[in-house]
Amino acid sequence: MRIIAGQMARVGLDIKLFPAASLLRPTDQVNALINGSVDMIFIPADYLQDRFPQLGALSLPGVIRGQAHAERVGASTVMRDLRQMLDNADLVVLADSWMPGAYASRGKCVLTPADSKGMKARTIGRFMTEFWSAAGAIPVTATTSDTLPILVGSNLIDIANTSVTTLMTLRMEKSFACLTVPSNDGALWYLYETILVSKKRFRALDEPRRKELLAAAARAHESLNTAMSLTVRRLSGNFLAAGTEVVVLDGENLAAWHRLARRTAWKTFKEQVPGGGDLIDRLQAVE
């Protein structure tokens, strides 16, 4: 968002930023965007699922197979249709990204589903809740990641499951025994995040500013993608510096998690979300 704001300032459009959900809670932002209270948001798809449940497919474990696959999905016809769904709600997708997920655990490392048995795992949404429950963990629903330090400090969770960016910004390295990070084979799951702007506000811009906004969004997209691997390395370095063990989720263990996802979260998504089966099939058909 800072990249977009900086580039737009050069053409006389001032964008006032409210970082870290300081203006509105994430769960309230999309409604505020639709009713005109705010003009633009950068938001994970998890907070859009109540209104657009189909977007939940993009963050299911195993649906996105890696960063390169995410880029191909982003350019696919299935994403075109999902963006059209948002457009029909008067929302314009300026840019999107897939942030790899990671998790920190207390007491021991968690590499396989069996390792999580009996541990309290932070979840968001019914699909992730079912997924961790089937692994043997005890799901603890936490809608926003900013509650994680409280949950950890109160011994309410043993596994902090969130994006690599969130784990890095929360600075909880000394609260855990182990950090599990993605490998070259991919992450356990990817968090789909998007920059949305009100269609009304977008159309109110003159043509040169619209083009500049789209160009700025494209630059932000490239910057986010470039930062992915660096973010994982920095996160690992922070935990290692704190004396916390860091392990990599290799292909064999990753496959075990993804098999679990197919018979739990995927299955429920297909059954409960309109068009969910076709959506997952189309996403998986992207090579």
Automatic annotation (TrEMBL):
Pfam family of the protein (one): DctP
GO biological process terms on file: C4-dicarboxylate transport; transmembrane transport
Alphabetized InterPro entries for the sequence: DctP_fam, TRAP_DctP_sf
Domain of life: Bacteria
Key words, A-Z: Signal, Transport
Family assignment from sequence similarity: Belongs to the bacterial solute-binding protein 7 family.
Protein name, entry field: C4-dicarboxylate transporter
Source organism of this protein record: Paramagnetospirillum kuznetsovii
